[in-house]
Amino acid sequence: MSQKPGRTVQRRLLGGELRRLRESAGLTIEEVASFVRMSTSVISKIENGKQAILPRNVTLLALCYKLDEELSSSLIRRAEEMEKPPGLSRALADTVPGWFDRYADLEGDASAITSYDSELIPGLLQTADYITAITRASRPNVSDEEVSRAVESRQQRQRRILVPGGPALRVIINEAALLRLVGDSGVMRRQVQHLSTCAEQADIRILPLSVGAHPAMGMTFLRLAFTDSDLDFVYLEADCGAFYLEDANDVVRYDALLERVSDIALTREDSASWLATVVRQE
């Protein structure tokens, strides 16, 4: 039986966080079960997002892991949010520690990832120089150390996804993202060369400017598919956090949108040729 729309991702995110906190505390599931007086199967289901995560249970787990008041309160609020009517799931940057890392965990479990990007090269295909340039552009006062962390974090994500047996990756990139000068001409040249190389493994489609107005104008999103289709969702990111569209109707709507954009984008073969031509012209 599938879980109610709007709660699956929240349960998996919170359950994964509770699992990491247990492991950080050096406790086994058996030890935790004894402390909170729950069965090991219940603890396991909570950590894997397989059942409701009640605020009172989170309170007991927080005591068991000796969490500070701020983190405990944040976890309990997230559990309370899940008791509200299902709808749009949201991970807030100010209430969910490492909110993007939580998405990256889900991404690694996907069987297929499809994205459309209008402004940027997709994160999974960005070079280190490109990551550095966009990080500095979006955060003018960022330190060198923070830039290095941003590069390593994204490259770690790439290493997890872009491997044999990893999720099938299909990206549709607006040509405008390739024409925008990020960093300098050298950064963009190396970025396009990298895309051309990645096209051997990933399904990269270029959406030419010549198509004019199109259905996904102004949008950027990722669609994650899982072996269990009940877990599928669409991911929308903002500075303040992220939104997860889990309702089946929303997922179907974005699938239709992706197909409409795919129909007017260059084919995989033509996109690869387009990239190779740009590389040769550099």
TrEMBL record:
Domain HTH cro/C1-type span(s) in chain numbering: 18-74
Pfam families: DUF5753, HTH_31
GO molecular function, one term: DNA binding
Domain of life: Bacteria
Transmembrane region(s): none
PROSITE patterns xref list: HTH_CROC1
The protein, known as: DNA binding protein with helix-turn-helix domain
Organism, as annotated: Actinoalloteichus fjordicus
Organism ancestry: Bacteria, Bacillati, Actinomycetota, Actinomycetes, Pseudonocardiales
